[in-house]
Amino acid sequence: MSLSFKTGLLSGACALALVAVSVPAYAQDDISTLRQQLDAMKERLAKLEADKQDKRRVAAAAAVEAGDKPRSWKLPGTNTSMNIGGFVKMSLHYNFTGGAQTGGAHTEGAGAGVAQLSGSQSDNVFNGGNFEMLARRSRFWIQTWTPTDWGELRTYIEGDFAGAGAGQGSSSNVLRLRHAYGTLGPVLIGKTLTLFGGLIGQPELLDDGAPMAPGALRIEQIRYTHNFGGGLTLSVALEEQLTSDDKVAANAAAIQGGTCTAAGACVNLPAATFNATNGFFGPVRFPDITAALQWNFPGGAVYVSGMVGLLTVDNGGQAGLLQQDDTAFKWGAAIGARYEIARLEFGGLGYFGYGIGNKYGNGGATGFTDAVLITQVASTSADLRPAQAFGVLGYAQYKLTDTIRVTGAFNWAENNLADEVPGYYNPALNNKAVLTGKPQNYWAAYGNLLWNPVPQVTIGIEYSYQFSGRYNSANAQINRIELAAIYRF
Predict the structure, then answer these.
(1) Rounded Cα–Cα distance for residues 295 and 276 (Å)
(2) CA distance 86 to 158
(3) Phi, psi of 366 (to 5 degrees)
(4) How far is CA 422 from the centre of its chain?
(5) How far is it, in rounded angstroms, from Cα 450 to Cα 146?
(6) pLDDT tier at 452, thresholds 50, 70, 90
(7) Where are the domains of the chain?
């Protein structure tokens, strides 16, 4: 409101006052009218002043303030800090021999466990060299922090473009949900990394499907974490048993079937034969239980974890088949560690268990199996047998300069299915066909050179050789070199 307008209102008020004391009685009605007009002008002045104050408060609330966390800002009018980040990643692959690629599908992140069998027609198509460029592993995230009376409230959502069905070409890079969770104080609810295995002891690789990485599994869960102080924390969680939104397909890949006669001769049992609709998919009776103890100390860290759970199959007795079902106990233990001395960092991890080869042994890369299902011909018998799985990984990284480093890594993993097939080693029965083509072991060697010209950019070259030994079948391998550029924001 202008100063002249305010002055005019005050002058008018003075004039009305003078008139009120000097006019005769017969003009009092006119004075009353003027007083009413003056009151209306005062109300208008008060409203204009209030509106002006409101506009000042809105403008102040709209101003961007620095948040309470690094690289964050306050959401206008709140005490919530927000951060947006991610990276753009471009990878160039050249497979010298072998490959998992068929029909134009991408091979990044695919270990030898899902490569074509050596010497097969599909494998021969890509022997002699295969080159591809892709950017679908680019990633973004949004996170917030809000102080509350119950502790800090944090939310985190992360996605990339490597969703199921994403094939060759930019138009088929499907958005995929990687993380989506919230924490309030010590409680986390949502989808994030499993507690089993952990990332401590994992090397820095360009390969997005680092094959033996139990802790890289992202799974829906409810978690509680207690901080003892001194770098020691304990976490426990209830986690989703299955690892894919397509639960039927995921469970079918996790179980290998065989059917045997009374004389002990066994043949392969396809999932569709067990149940034409659901395959080996059975009900989930209870979530997996996981726990982890982590100790951070100067220069390093140690991570010890374990899990227990149930595996279940059920054919429903449909389509004229006899009712066949069974439930089995699965468990696993793992340890990882890393330590840094001057410019050298080294570390590793190992795991052992029964019934965890597919889910925690990175079944998508190794092709490992959780269990063997043995049924009897024309019988209700169903014996679900969790298979032994174990693996070790070690790495060393040396910083040549503050911006250049070299890494070497080696891992070995094994999936012992043969012990769960009756008479597998008996030549007279010839039951080896039950496991034909299934991976028995997997090993890989990696070496890379990484350079950060600026902190936000990593440029690197990596060589890897991945090998998969198969039961009663030809082996598989991938021999690859990868160039990659990562730009963070």
Answers:
(1) 48
(2) 9
(3) -85, -25
(4) 38
(5) 37
(6) very high
(7) 3-62, 73-488
Burial (Cβ within 10 Å: 0-12, 13-18, ≥19) of residue 256: buried
User: What does the alpha-carbon distance between residue 116 and residue 101 come to, in Å, rounded to a whole number?
Assistant: 8
- What kind of fold does domain 73-488 have according to CATH? Porin (2.40.160)
pLDDT tens digit sequence for 397-414: 999 999 999 999 999 999
The two tokens of residue 136 are 């679908």
Cβ-based neighbours of 366, under 8 Å, separated by 6 or more: 111, 113, 211, 212, 357, 413, 415, 439, 442, 468
Residues 462 and 210: beta-carbon distance below 8 Å: no
Hunting for tokens 């996605």 — which residue is that? 159
Q: CA 390 to CA 387: how far, in whole Å? A: 10
What pLDDT band is residue 242 in, cutting at 50, 70 and 90?
confident
Q: Which amino acid is at 342?
A: A
Rounded to the nearest 10 degrees, what angle do helices 3-22 and 28-62 cross at?
A: 160
Q: Enter the tokens of residue 38.
A: 């003056």
Dist. CA 376–CA 219, nearest whole Å? 35
Query: DSSP labels for 38-63?
Result: HHHHHHHHHHHHHHHHHHHHHHHHHS
> Confidence class of residue 220 from pLDDT cuts 50, 70 and 90?
very high
The Cα 442–Cα 392 span in angstroms is: 11
Indicate the pTM of the whole model. 0.83
Burial class (CB in 10 A: 0-12, 13-18, 19+), 41: middle
